[in-house]
Every structure is written in C-alpha cells, then in structure tokens.
Amino acid sequence: MSGGTPSLPNHDSAQFSDSAHPFSTGRLAPPKAGENSGEFEIYRAIFDSLPASFAVIDRSGKILEANAAWKQYTGTNPLFVANFGIGQNYLDLAQQVTADYVDSAEAIVQGIRRVLAGERPDFTYEYIYSVPGIRRWYRLRTTPFRSNQGPGALVIYTDITKRGEAETSLRHAEAKYRSIFENATEGIFQTSAGGRYISANPMLARIYGYESPEELINSIHSIAQQLYVNPQRREEFVRILKEKDVVFQFESAIYRKDGQIIWIWENARAVRDDDGQLLYYEGTVEDITALKEAQERIRNQAALLDKASDAIVVQDLQHHIQYWNQSAERIYGWAAADVLGKDALALIYQDTSVLQKAMHQALVQGSWYGEIKQWRKDGATLLMETSLTLVRNAQNEPMSILSINTDITVKKQLEEQIVHSQRLESIGTLAGGIAHDINNILTIITGNAVLGRNSLPANHPIQRNLSAIESATTRAAGVVRQILTFSRRQDTEKRIIDLGPVVQEAIHFLRTTLSPKIEIRSDFAETMPPILADATQIHQIVMNLGTNAAHAMQTQGGRLEFRLRVVSLDAAQAFLMENLRAGKYVQLAISDTGCGMDRETVRRIFEPFFTTKKPGEGTGLGLAVVHGIVKNYEGALTVTSELGKGTVFNLYFPALDAIAEPLRTIAPEQQDGGGRNIMYVDDEADIVAITTQDLQNHGYAVTGFTLPHEALETFYANPFYFDAAVLDISMPKMDGLELARQLLARRPDFPIVIASGFIRPEDHERVRRLGIKKLLEKPSTVSNVGASLAELFKELSR
To answer: Residue 472: pLDDT above 90?
Structure first.
C-alpha cells in the first residue's frame, strides 16, 4: 500500500458485515472438481468490475486475493514486488513507508488488526497520497470477511480525489469568507422580514455597542422599535427593499445599547427563493456619525462665513470659483449659483496683472495682502482690501486660494473727503488770515479815498478817481467775501433773500475762474418773489453746478446759461417734482452745451461719492450736497441730459409773500458826533490815523491806540471819560474781545463796537456772551463806523 495522513472526515460508518458482502460465501479460490464453475466466473467478473480496489487478507494479514482495480492500483507501487502483493503480508507492507507517512501507516495497521481480532466491526481511514506531480485522496475501509481458508478481512481502497478537492476548496472558501465576515470594518447582517437578526458580524455588534454578535441577536427582538430613533425610517427601508430589492446609503439615526444616538448608512438587498418569495434581508452598516458631525461643523462654519461682512471666495488654481458666501452675493451682486465654476479673473477683477502678481506671491509665500480694484455686476468699481491665502490638501499640495475681500470703497472715499475737507479747512484758515490783512489794507485805501473826497469840492476832477478807488475797494471786499464763502469760513443761516443778486454775485465769481472758451449768459425775470434760504448755500449751489458744467465743456468750450423764472405748479406737476406741494416756485435753470450724460449716469448722479471725473478731480459729493440743500429748502432738483448735446438742471425754491432782507446792512444817515469821546483801538497805525481823522470830521473826539494795554491803562485812569469804544479783534498780545471783557469788567454798561477784517463763527458767540451789540466787518468806511456808533447812542437814549 501507499502511506496516508488522516485528513478527511468519515462519511461512511456503516458496518460491512459478512452477509452484506458479495463474497461472503468465501468462494474465492477456483471451484473444485464437481463444483459449479459458472457461478465462480460470475463472482469473479463482478469482483473485477468493482471500481474500488479490493484485497482479501487472512487473519495474519497475508493477501489472498485482489480484484482488477487493486492490481491496477498496486502495479506501480514498488512495495508490491510481485503478483500485485498476493501472498505478501499487507500489514508488513503497510509499515514499510517513508517517514512522511509513518503516523498514517501505524493508524491503518492498528485499525486493520482490531478488525481481524474482532475488536471492531469495521475500520475506515481517509488520507492524501502525495508524490511529485501526483496528489490524490483515498479512503481505506476494512471489514471482516470469511473465506474458504478461514476468517480474515476485506481491504477496500476508494479514490475520493474529486470529493476531497471539492471539500478542500469549500473549507478554504468558508475560511476566507468567515475571515472577511469576522474581520470586516463594516457591520454585516442578515435580518428576517419580521425585523429580527439572523446573523451579525462582530463589527455590527461593536457599532451598536454590544459585546458580541450573539448578545445583539438575542437582545434585539424588533429592529424598528429598539434600534431606530424614528421607526418610520425602518418602514421606509423595508418598503424600498420590497419595491426595488436593493437600497444604497440609507441614512438613519440609531440607538446604541447605552442610549447614545449614532448615524448609519445601510446598503442592503432582498434575498428571494427560486419562486420569488422573500427569504431575508442582508447587507452592510457603516457608522457615519463622525461624517455627520463633520458635515454639521462645515454647515456651522459655512453659516458663520455667510454671516461675515466680508466677501469670502474660494477659487482653484485655474481661477474657477468654488465657494461664494452671502456677503459676496451682496457686495458683488451675483448669486452663488450664477458664479460657481466661472473664471474669477474675467468676472470680478479689473486689473488682472495685479491679481496675477498677488496669486504668484500667495503660491510662493503662502499669502498676499493688499488693495485691488474689482467689478460689481452692475459695472460699478469696488476698491477691495484683499487677503489671499494658499490652501493645501492632505498631501500638502497646493489646492486652492482663499480670498477674503473687504469693501473699502466708501472708506477710501470718506478718507479722501476728509483729506479734501482738511485741505479746505487749511484753505479756509489761510483765507481767513488773508481776508483780515486784505480788509485792513482795503480799509486804509477806502478811508483815504473817502477823506480825499470829503476834502475836495464835489466838482473837483479828482472826485471821479477817488470814487473809482472806493468802488474798486468795495468790489475787492466782495471778492474776499466770496473766497470766505467758497472755503466755508462764514456762518450760514436761512433768511428771506432775493435769489437774483445772490446768483449774480456767484456768476461774477465764476467768470473770473472759468476758461474764456466758455460763454456765460444770464436771463433773470424782472420781478421775483423772495425765498427762504442761506445766501452762502445758494452761492455754493451755483458754484458747484457751474463748475460741473464747465468741466463738461472743458475740451470744446460752449455756453453756460443761468435763467430765473417764477412758475406755478399744480398738484400733478408738483407730485412729479419729488412730491412737492402745489404752489408758486422760483425756478433756477442752469444749462450747458457740454458732453451730456447717459441715462445710467443721470440715474445715479445724486448718489454720494458717485462721480464721472478722473481720480483727484472730484469727490462725488458736490451734487449730493446740492440735492440735500434744495430738499432742505422744501424744493426740488431735476436734471435732463443728452449725450453730445448738454445738460439742464432745474432747481425749484418755494416762493414767499414777503420782502427780502438786504444782503448787506446799509448805513443810516450820518449824525454829528456831538463831541462824544471815542476810544479807537487797532494794531494798524494807518487805520487808526484815518478813522480818527474822519470821525473827528464828524464831530467825535477820538483817542486812538495801537497797543491794547495802553488803551486799558488810559481807561482805568478815568473809566467815565470815554463814551464808547471801537475795537479791532485781531491784535497781538491781547485781542479786541479780551480788551472788551476787561473794559466791561470795570464798566459793565460801556458801549463797544467790535470790528474785524475776518469774523469767525466763534467770534459771534464770544461777542454775544460779552453783551456787545455791534459787530462790524471790515473794510469799514468811516460812515460805517459812525453809523454803528450812532445806532448805539440812539439805543442808549431810549
């Protein structure tokens, strides 16, 4: 025989008794004389036709007979040296095996001996025979057998290679899939249609918080009620499986054993028999709690990003927009759905070269910060304070660019406006100082002209020259007032005024500043009702609109026209005029023949900071201020324009049934000084000399001072010597208001007139607090000073 190792289970434990054996009669040897030889031949043919290898051994183990299959089996085995082993002892042959099969041979010999000894009814042993190039499975079976030579045994070898290979493959497959089942990182299950677990792997038990699959299976009697937070989700899960037989990533909230809620995905299929009847459900479970928490964090972060006031944009390295928060929608005007995937360079960036440099720095250094111009959807320019940050993936590779954009358009415009305002403030301060000095000079010139005229006969040829000098100084004083108005260094308050003279004064100032290529015309109605307004603000309106018109005609020149009319608006017309009240209005129309504006520019022209001028040429606040002033007067402002033809602004001011106040106080008729003693203090000696001389000519006794402390010492020596004082405000060491305070401290009822070449807004308040009634603006002629003194004395005599 060949050796073998026990490896296959015993699949045939039935006894092979004598009665069951076809040769139980023991007729193995040829028949003797007189016996039926035909019967023997039949038995012999049957014996040889059996596919298993049969051998008959006697009680000692000697082989008595073998069939054809045995002879074929042993024909190549060197142990069976002759006649297929017949006559040799099988037990001895079985022990003559290589070391690889010693254990198997010993087991076979002992099994056969026990059968021969009658200790067991049969013996079966399966083993693998393996030599180079050959691997086969055999089953050996030994049963008792009695021949005509006495008791023995029948040894049967069956080739079970096919079954052995199949069983080995099955064991390997079972081991493989059992390992997958036991060690899978996802939960694996089979559940009945009624909602109980049939099988579960260890991972499913761990996901649900159980110690073992057995505990899970034995504990859960209703999956829907015990596991699902919302049992209706289990019903939906089953419904889908019944309808479609499969379900993918079915998301549900599940209770763990400890009561904690987790989130899972289920992938499952319905298993059916050949008739289509449902057997069970099987599938996998994945714990997605961490994913859900991450998604929630992302949603919360996205919500925070949407609450940010800055525009937050993420773009890939090819500039395709990947994220666009709500502030980006608000600032740029595009909805996220309209821009995702689009090229950010083409969409929002004006100067792509600047962005390319910024992107390069972000890629090399990781970040970039600076200011950059961008577009809104409506074409408006935005100045953005932008931070670019390089975002890397898990492999530390550049993935995208995070862009945080702060809209600083208004901030920059406000900064520019502040700088502009500070510049105007500086100009105003300079203008105030210049005005004081110029007005003092003009006072000297005017005073000398008046003195010259008064000292000459009325028909003297020099009178005309002196009048021209006086007229020129009056005009120069008007120019100084216009400078102060332009630099906003004068107080403003509404008064009942005649619009014509104010507009005319502003037009006169415009003529001196605009290009000679621009023709200025004016057409005023002869009579117009007054309006309630501030002359300074009206002056500002005319200057602003006139300057804008000139800007529109700066290349080719043109015509600038001012028209004043009285119009009556009915209810319908008034409603269309920014919802005015019906009634009478003074209409100021300012038109030009410049380049004109398109419809979109006209629509936005009164927006603060909107300007069509180049940087540095305007702040965009002028027309907004004009509009605000007109609205404050309960009026209206309209504009019509056409490209290439020009623009017309129509301003409507409510007309009043009243008499306009004079723009400047007219001096009353001169009265004789009556010898009253006047203290006159000014740091300009020429002004003191001229004024002293002229006041003396009008009957006053004047004591002039150029140093305030000398005037104070003289007053202290005899407080009641002087009847009144005229004091200049701007003087070194002690200004006129401080001198007035000390004079009034000694004599509270002392009449004082304050004069200055530049009166600041705060000077009015200081004068009021001191109780001084008269504030005189230079250049003041002697008639102005005398008139002010006359009014003081007249009030005192009441």
So the answer is: no
> Which residues touch 765 (CB under 8 Å, ≥6 apart)?
none
**Torsion of Cα atoms, 569 then 575 then 581 then 584, to 10°:** -10
Residue 710 reports pLDDT greater than 90: yes
Residue 306 host element (H or E): helix 289-307
Element (H, E) at 650: strand 646-654
Strands 774-777 and 752-756, sheet pairing: parallel
Where are any strands of DSSP class E within 28-92? 53-58, 63-66
SS3 761: helix
Joined together, the tokens standing for residue 185 give: 């990182």
Average pLDDT of 513-519? 83
> Which residue in 784, 733, 783 sits closest to 755, CA to CA?
784
| CB neighbour class for 734 (10 Å; exposed up to 12, middle 13-18, buried from 19) | middle
Angle at 345 between CA 342 and CA 350, to 5 degrees: 135
In whole angstroms, give the CA distance from residue 515 to residue 546.
12
pLDDT in tens, 252-271: 999 999 999 999 999 999 99
Burial of 87 (0-12, 13-18, 19+ CB in 10 A): exposed
**Cβ-proximal residues to 735 (8 Å cutoff; 6+ apart), any chain:** 708, 729
**pTM of the predicted model over 0.85:** no
Of all residues in the chain, the percent with pLDDT exceeding 70 is 82
Residue 207, CB half-sphere, CA atoms under 13 Å: how many? Answer: 26
Q: Which of 19-23, 142-146, 524-528 has the lowest mean pLDDT?
A: 19-23
Q: Are 704 and 688 in contact (CB under 8 A)?
A: yes
